[in-house]
């Protein structure tokens, strides 16, 4: 079943609901989902933030504060 068919089936089932409590639960779920989506929105860095991150990354590299690709892969390949 494609997304459009699922949406239509959901809307039809929702419209047939008789329980106020169920509608309140759906409203809460939708509000929570909207808040999560807003929190996960991409926020681009300002030029200053980007330059600061670059400087920190270069400092970390120069101070040998990094892991190699091999080290990272070996940690997750078990």
Describe what this molecule looks like in 3D.
The protein has 78 residues and is an all-alpha fold. Helices cover 73% and strands 0% of the residues. The protein is built from 4 helices and no strands. The protein has helices at residues 3-15, 20-39, 47-62, 69-76. It is elongated.
The count of β-strands is: 0
Distance between the termini: 37 Å
H and E order: HHHH
What's the rounded overall pLDDT mean? 89
Alpha plus pi helix count: 4
| Shape, principal axes of CA atoms | elongated
> Which value, in Å, is the CA radius of gyration?
24 Å
The main sheet comes to: none
Helicity range: over 70%
Percent strand: under 5%
Segments where pLDDT lies below 50 for 5+ residues? none
| Coarse structural class | mainly alpha
Topology:
Elements: H1 3-15, H2 20-39, H3 47-62, H4 69-76
Question: What's a concise summary of this model?
Answer:
With 78 residues, the chain is mainly α.
Please supply descriptive tags for the structure shown above.
single chain; 78 residues; mainly alpha
């Amino acid at each position: 079943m494609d997304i459009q068919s699922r949406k239509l089936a959901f809307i039809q089932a929702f419209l047939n609901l008789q329980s106020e409590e169920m509608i309140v639960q759906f409203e809460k779920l939708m509000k929570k989902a909207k808040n999560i989506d807003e929190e996960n929105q991409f926020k681009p860095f300002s030029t200053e933030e980007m330059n600061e991150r670059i400087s920190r990354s270069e400092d970390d590299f120069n101070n040998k504060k990094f892991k190699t690709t091999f080290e990272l892969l070996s940690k997750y390949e078990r």
